[in-house]
Amino acid sequence: MYQYLLLLDTEQEREFFKKLYKEHKNEMYYTALKILKNESDAEDMVHETFLTLTEHLSKMIDNSPQKSWNFILTILKHKCYNLYKKKKWEIEDDSELENRKDVFSEEPDDRIERLEKKELIMSLMKQMKESYQEVLILQYYHEMDIAEIAEVLSETEDNIRHISMRAKRKMCKMLEKYGIADSHGI
Predict the structure, then answer these.
(1) Which of 136, 151, 32 is nearest to 81 (CA)?
(2) Which pLDDT score is estimated for 157?
(3) Do the beta carbons of residue 29 and residue 42 sit within 8 Å?
């Protein structure tokens, strides 16, 4: 814990961090272990999450304990899923890599348009409720199915389906304003 405290500027931040560390380190570890199924990786992700928290602590100090925990949990889960995906990519055999779309075969204008749409979607997503963001990121960025998302977020599959449906509907409405989607989707 002391290496984290050295990264903090004020005594208030240090005291707040100590409290977060003592209250949440074990629960964070078990959450990471549940996702990664590897003790060493789980420890690494908890460590990386605490490092990230040191950068955002001043924004968290005035939050309610539940909001702080949700923020911590979101960071931890994203880090775990990024590692999970990275390891999954490393295991893939070369034959699958050959079948992937070559980005250089894409026309430059098409690629620019695709990247601009992606940037717009990410920007719009940041305007959505946190629960919508989480589900969409896990569903599309991390390519998780409803059952996996429900397990990670400790929700029912039915609830995740509803959140996903509402989030997609909201995203389509937001994209309609930019002329990217019509009333039937993208």
Answers:
(1) 32
(2) 92
(3) yes
Question: Residues 160-178: pLDDT tens digits?
Answer: 999 999 998 988 888 888 7
Domains, the chain, with CATH or none: 1-93 (1.10.1740), 108-186 (1.10.10.10)
Kindly write down the DSSP assignment for every residue of the chain, as one continuous string.
-HHHHTT--SHHHHHHHHHHHHHHHHHHHHHHHHHH--HHHHHHHHHHHHHHHHHHHHHHTTS-HHHHHHHHHHHHHHHHHHHHHHHHHHHS-HHHHHHSPPGGGS-HHHHHHHHHHHHHHHHHHTTS-HHHHHHHIIIIIS---HHHHHHHHT--HHHHHHHHHHHHHHHHHHHHHTTS-BTTB-
What residue type is assigned to position 143 of the chain?
A: E
Verdict on whether the full-model pTM lies above 0.70: no
Over residues 30-78, the pLDDT tens digits come to 889 888 888 999 999 999 998 888 888 877 888 888 888 888 888 898 8
* Residue 100 backbone dihedrals phi, psi, to 5 degrees: -70, 155
Compute the distance between CA of residue 40 and CA of residue 8 in angstroms, rounded to an integer: 26
pLDDT band at 104; cut points 50, 70, 90: low
